[in-house]
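Run folding on both entries below.
>entry_1
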Amino acid sequence: MSEPEVLSSVRNAARVLKAFTSRQRSFGVSELARKLDLSKSTAHRLLMTLAAEHLVEQDAETGRYRLGLAVYDLVAATSAGFDLTEAVLPPMTLLRTRSGATVHVAVLDGREVVYVERLDSPHSLRLFLDVGRRNWAHSTATGKVLLAHLPESDLARVLRDWDLVERTSQTITDPDLLRKELLAVRDQGYAQNLEESEVGAISVAAPVRDASATVVAAMSVVGPTARMRLEMHRITHAVMEAAAVASRRLGHRSRGAIT
């Protein structure tokens, strides 16, 4: 394409979107204008236009802008048939940008979860388990998601004679209470780990499904308790959306949309 054919407004809109990174997750109008060498009025018009298309969203409290949910749909607009790594890494990257926290993907192995993918928080708070490491399923958000979506016969077998390890004072150690929790997880579409595995850390997870609608993995965000509690609603929604994108990349077609 020759230079005269390039639309400067479209190029500037693309520059705005590419300005967001894992280290710079949000911008004020003046800040973005300086970074991109644009006038403040131009930066504001670009952000307003992108917000109207849900490509960016404005924080109602701070007035700052961050990537919006429509970015996930762009990531998902590729052919199905990816393996798990190919399916989860783009939405994981966007989820880390939106949440500012560490993102994991885990699979179930008996009574344990195995972490198969991880993207560290841009804040580099090294509280959490590495790829390939294992953790008890009953005390983790990813584990609860994976247990909750087992067929009943498989879940009964896993729970039978399971001496639930107490990791912290918040860990569920009663099998009946765990089963009740798993029913709630299945109904609501996400799970929480409220300092049940490690004091000072909270996580939220949602299911990743394949083309047959089978839950094959769980995606989670984990971070320090104080920060996670303040943003729990927003982060939970972001996790569910990112997991849904990964599912679509694996060929799953949901009947309903997340609201």
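>entry_2
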Amino acid sequence: MPVALVTGGSRGFGRALSIDLAMDGWALVIDGRDRSALQQTADHLIGLGAHTVAIAGDVADPAHRSALIESAGDLGSLDLLVNNASTIGPSPLPRIEDYPLDALRQVYEVNVLAPLALLQAALPQLRRSQGTVVSLSSDAATEAYEGWSGYGSSKAALDQLHRVLAGEEPLLRVYQFDPGDMRTEMHQAAFPGEDISDRPEPETAVVPLRALLDSGAASGRYRVDEWVLQS
């Protein structure tokens, strides 16, 4: 069976994607910082019949990343790495003149350096399977929204890393996927006190991503709306 490693798999988009993969016969390694939420998701995946390994922890922790990669190897050949875990940074979102540098360092640690380190550790397995890398991007990586300097610039940096990786690893498929606005805890943190119930549930972005994964499309950056009609 194919094996996927999905970071931030306990909630939101990561959870929705993990459930979809489980129903399609994938084995899964998932993580999350909230041990209780992670266990609930793991129990659900196991109930669907998926071989599931759930490891609580922070992707910014090198020991945690090592445990994720080792667990994926124990399940077989890693076929899909999904860098979904990320942080929005301070809430409310600060202007550049007020952005705490320590907070910005943490945003880059989680959103850029941790995915890069996980990729570096996963490459031997991904090369063997000629697998796929998906990292969640955002329109904040390409558009200048007030207050989004930290998160947006971190996603722009991650996008560029993936463009270079795609050139260096032509046998892999390397995707940056922009799922659009979603009704998640992280999106709520970006708009504290506001009603975000008009945003789509994360499940609506999973189907287009699966269409992208099944398409064999060339490595690159894709928006959710480019694949809605193909899903």
